[in-house]
Design brief:
Mean pLDDT: 97
Largest sheet: 7 strands, parallel
Pfam family, one: RmlD_sub_bind
Organism: Kribbella sp. HUAS MG21
Low-confidence stretches: none
CATH superfamily of the largest domain: NAD(P)-binding Rossmann-like Domain
Protein name: Sugar nucleotide-binding protein
CATH architecture of the largest domain: 3-Layer(aba) Sandwich
Length: about 260
């Protein structure tokens, strides 16, 4: 299989490049990657040219820009329109939902409350219409092991006394980048299609997550500043997808254990 990974310079993209056991072509926008191709997903003609040149059997689309509708929504649509029959896995987000007290299942329609969530929700809808056999993989906060993920960097900044705080009322289901990459590659080679939920099974607050990272990295977890923040409980019910995967999606308390 020949795999095209968009957004390959990002945290998830780099992990996919590292772990994929096939011919992988990284597509980047601003950060050049060896053996890669430059790709501006906002440019449909450019997307068409790249896909025709690479001739991928599969595409994992991770590229997004949180504050840019063109990149996040239109870019994903361009990739779907020009996929040329390649198997498509689109990485979406729990931000397509608003807060509530119970987890969201895969069959539930998006109800975003942020522009980013709306962009991802629009992309999901269009992709399912354009390429019904594509996989929509909704995930949550992505955490790594090398200090480069956003949550790890935040812990280091706040532990060093920089301004900011962790929210106690922001609840998510964090996933390890290695687990997520393995699950996406497994989905790519499977016969599944439609919406899947690929996040960790453990719901934690941003403060609880920060403290787990701090303990792992040798910082004082009690020294991390916190504020309630706007209540935002968004949990993905991943049991249906997990039951069909060999990849084990670990809880945060496990993958952040020392």
């Amino acid at each position: 299989m020949r795999l095209l990974v968009t957004g390959a310079a990002g945290l998830l993209g780099r992990e996919l490049l590292r772990s994929a056991a096939c011919d992988v072509v990284p597509a980047y926008f601003s950060q050049t990657l060896p053996g890669g191709v430059h790709l501006d997903v906002r440019d449909r003609a450019g997307v068409r040219d790249v896909i025709r040149a690479v001739k991928p059997d599969g595409i994992i689309h991770t590229a997004y820009l949180q504050d840019d509708w063109l990149t996040t929504a239109v870019g994903a649509v361009n990739v779907a329109l020009e996929s040329g029959g390649a198997r498509l896995v689109f990485v979406s987000t729990d931000a397509v939902f608003g807060p509530r007290e119970t987890p969201y299942a895969e069959h539930e329609p998006p109800c975003p409350i942020t522009p980013y969530g709306a962009a991802k929700a629009a992309a999901e809808t269009a992709i399912q219409a354009i390429t019904p056999d594509a996989v929509i993989a909704r995930t949550s906060l992505i955490v790594g092991s090398d200090g480069t993920s956003e949550e790890e960097q935040r812990v280091r900044r706040l532990a060093a006394g920089e301004p900011g705080a962790f929210y106690t009322e922001n609840i998510r289901c964090p996933v390890h980048v290695g687990d997520l990459a393995a699950a996406l590659l497994e989905l790519l080679g499977s016969d599944l299609d439609g919406v899947t939920h690929v996040a960790g099974p453990q719901a934690v607050s941003r403060l609880e997550l920060g403290r787990l990272i701090a303990i792992r990295d040798g910082y004082d977890p009690q020294a991390l500043p916190s504020v309630p923040g706007t209540p935002s409980d968004v949990r993905l019910d991943c049991r249906r997808t997990q039951a069909r995967l060999k990849t084990y999606l670990r809880p945060a308390s496990e993958f952040l254990s020392r």
